[in-house]
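In response to reviewer comment 3 from the previous cycle, which asked for concrete evidence that the modeling workflow produces usable outputs, we include below a single protein chain processed end to end. The sequence was submitted unchanged, and the resulting structure tokens are shown without manual editing.
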Amino acid sequence: MARAPLIQLSDISLTFGGNPIFSDLGFVVQTGDRLSLVGRNGSGKSTLMKVMAGLVEADTGHRVIPPGVSVGYMEQDPDLSQFDTLGDFALSALDVSEHYKVEIAAEGLKFDPHRSVKTASGGERRRAALAKLMAEDPELMLLDEPTNHLDIEAISWLETTLRESRNSFVVISHDRAFLTALTRATLWIDRGAVRRLEQGFGSFEAWRDKTWEEEDQQRHKLNRKIKAEARWAVEGISARRKRNQGRVRALGELRAERAAQINRQSTAAMAFESGQKSGAKVIEAKNLDLAFGELEILKDFSLTVQRKDRVALVGPNGVGKTTLIKTLLGEQAPDRGSVKLGTNLQIAVFDQGRTRLDPNLSLWEALTSDPTMAVSGRSDQIMVRGTPKHVVGYLKDFLFAEEQMRAPVRALSGGEKARLLLARLMAQESNLLILDEPTNDLDIETLDLLQDVLGDYDGTVLLVSHDRDFLDRVATTTIALEPGGKATVYAGGWSDYQAQKPNLSGKKAGKQATKQSTTSTKVPTPEMKTADVKPALSFTEKHRLEALPAEIARIESEIGKLEELLGQPTLFTEHPVKFQKATALLIERQEALAMAEEQWLELEEKAGG
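The workflow returned the following structure tokens.
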């Protein structure tokens, strides 16, 4: 049975500043679609999503949404000027009876609805925009980088909520694990055109590479044909007075075809240059206690970082990951314990807030005014790992266009700011890299390249990230920070940490973790015994328990209808495709029923516990 369209774009063309972004673009999003929208930074992903949302009007073409279909868009930089609190903004389009939905989303996404708009950070504003969209529950959700500024727990909540939702969605994200878990098809923006793959993101990269390989083969064949025709045309002048004008015109058409081909965007020329070799022992921390006001960050924590280690810090937002890094670098003294840094350290820092970039400087000035990069007496050259280089050439290595050189930093996108900060970082010699959320806003190709250059880097890396795939690819050691001052060291990346950490029943899910924190062995106290009592249901769990009976009844009704359809004796012989789809859907619905019933039993037991 044909699926109903939710939105259709046809013949969309759009130009910014004289440069075409899209040309004759078109596609349809249908009921049940769960699409990843992928493409390089600057390819127009966010612009296309704004066209879909009706916030940007195309130069030509049509956007059609059937009557009654609701479309919601998560804004990256929402306008909250008319609201006092984040909650006021998130509730603004809801009836009073639906206000509880924002409370559920706020709990899952970890933002305070009572936070004043004036004091809210950019990340909190984006989480409020995401909560607003989730609570409004439109038939089609347009999600632009929803995982940015979320910690891994919040990402997992969002992932589960979207998976269990019946909504369709289009999502832009650099988070491979998130896209692989959720999407069923892929829209790829490449050089102004959109291609569709009827498979989720997990299959995208192999398909993209195959597409590029086929393009290269076709281009090679075209070049050979042009060369042969050109040789014929030249030789024909001496062999014949009158050339075959048809072949001459064909040669011109071939050359025009080659000229019209748009080359694929190159990757940034990234490289970290290791300076002098540090000592074998880079950081040695012993018996650290650390608190920030009433927030306990560490209790009796010890750690040794060796040269070439890749140490990742993970944990909820606000647990103290950045504070721990500052303490390990000696920038902040612990309340108790000692930190000893190794010899010959050259430290380079990529900070989460991009605070090392002055928004009022131009890109040119951001490099030439840096005292570590400035070349004495030259305003057009910078020092790159000990060698003078023209600022324009170096910025082009990081995919900045010449017309951007004098533009202010504040005009850059999030991904462009990240590339500029990496350009500054990579100009330095270093043997200890501090990367605090480096993956935010970078496209997947740039993340791949960053991963590769970190693999070749001869120094040591301290890394904070919520990107599970990136952690798996880079980290050799993971420090898991938890509220209450507990910090545990595990060998490997995110997946290794998940396999090694204790599960909910207290058993080990994998190998015994290598613990360098002494906080795990304690005599039971009355407080700990009280903690063993089953907790009451959270706000989210309470509403989930109330909603499950109706959901179970709905799934049972769907199963009944599918069984009735499959019971028709002629269905298999006369409509084999329909039979196959109904069978697959029946299996899916039966699995959903089993999961819903199991969840109801667990929550009911917890409520009565």
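Residues 273-346+428-520 form a domain with the Rossmann fold fold (CATH 3.40.50.300). We consider this sufficient to address the reviewer's concern, and the full set will be provided in the supplementary archive.
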